[in-house]
Amino acid sequence: MSRTRFIAQAGVIAAVYGSLTWLTLAFGGVLAWGPIQFRISEAATVLALFTPAAIPGLAIGSVVANLFNPQAIWPLSLLDVVLGSLGTLLGAAWTWRFRTRTALALLGPVVANALIVAAYLPILLRAFGLSALPGLGVSLTGAWLPLYLVCVATIGIGEAAVVYGLGLPLLLALRRTGIVGLLGK
Fold first, then answer.
1. How many Cα atoms occupy the beta-carbon half-sphere of 157 within 13 Å?
2. 3-27 and 54-67 are packed helices; what angle lies between their axes, rounded to 10 degrees?
3. Is residue 1 helix, strand or coil?
4. Which of 34, 63, 67, 151 is least enclosed, having the fewest CB within 10 Å?
5. Which residues of 137-157 are buried (b: 16+ CB within 10 A; e: fewer)?
6. Which of 21, 123, 171, 34 shows the shortest CA–CA distance to 180?
7. What is the pTM of this model?
8. In whole angstroms, what is the distance from residue 39 CA to residue 99 CA?
9. Tens-digit pLDDT profile for residues 101-145
């Protein structure tokens, strides 16, 4: 793949991921942020099965979307910009690494986001003035480890629902249409 093509693919993927994330944040904030997340843009992580350009593309899209999050509380939201995007980057790299084993490949974004986002999410939720995880009633002032484990579970479940529930059908549709042949060249 030429350098120009790689950069162009990464740019388009960043735009798709960033736009979908931002739309979800702007119009369905509850779905895109918090202990239970359903970021529709995470379905786009399947693109890392087809091109390594998706690794920087998805990460850049995550940085841009998190920078312009209309619900951001600065400077604490830098945690989401840096660490959330790191989760996206690592998840995409995992997906590319295991691209010949689809089920395992799609686990990358789920694991990376669950482990990383859960580490700082309670800090952001406390900054919003919350004293307990919304919908779960788990205190945000308790010990860090139990809170972290609850967030790992809730974020992992939401991420898995999007990646396998939306991303996998997207993946199958892309394979059927032959569009994926354009990504790998």
1. 9
2. 30
3. coil
4. 67
5. ebebeeeeeebbebbbebbbe
6. 171
7. 0.90
8. 22
9. 999 999 999 999 999 999 998 888 888 787 877 777 778 888 888
